[in-house]
Amino acid sequence: NSSREEEMDKMISPIVLMRLPLFAAMHRSPAARSEEDVERVTTLIGSSTALLGAPLDLQKQVARMAMYRQFPPSEVIVKEGDASEEYFIILAGIVNVVSTASADSLTEVVNRLRPGEGFGELGILFGSSRTCTCVAATRGGVICAVLEREDYLHSLREYHSIANRYYDRYIY
């Protein structure tokens, strides 16, 4: 762990975060959110890299649908091989992305995702199963905004497809 990650590990406490209006608004069910709640949730998720550059109306649409999900330390969030049914935006905590080497069943951390990053879109976009396991890696757990498959497809499919075409063209 780097010193920054150790510092984040100490700072994250879901109990403390729930006292903040932004997280309290996110914790309400989508149907129970007021317009003020939607504005707060938009502020929270709109600054994520997952929605970077997205139009404000799209950010608000996601804020209206996203569900709050909390994962205790070491809990598996998604498991390699499972169906891709949800998209996650990390709000607090660190997620280890783990891949299983098929030859000897050893696991290896292949990436560490931080607040603001999203995961789970590829399986939804391509109709495939999960290619890696994601595990809550922070002592205080992980908090995510979660979109169900249909909500993701309805709101973010086109936006992420455009972004992926851009990256394919200019990075690869």
Automatic annotation (TrEMBL):
InterPro entries: cNMP-bd_dom, cNMP-bd_dom_sf, RmlC-like_jellyroll
SMART domains: cNMP (SM00100)
Pfam families reported in the protein's UniProt record: cNMP_binding
Highest rank taxon of the organism: Eukaryota
CDD domains per record: CAP_ED
Domain (Cyclic nucleotide-binding): residue spans on this chain: 50-172
Name of the protein in its database record: Cyclic nucleotide-binding domain-containing protein
Taxonomic source organism: Hemiselmis andersenii (Cryptophyte alga)
Taxonomic path: Eukaryota, Cryptophyceae, Cryptomonadales, Hemiselmidaceae, Hemiselmis
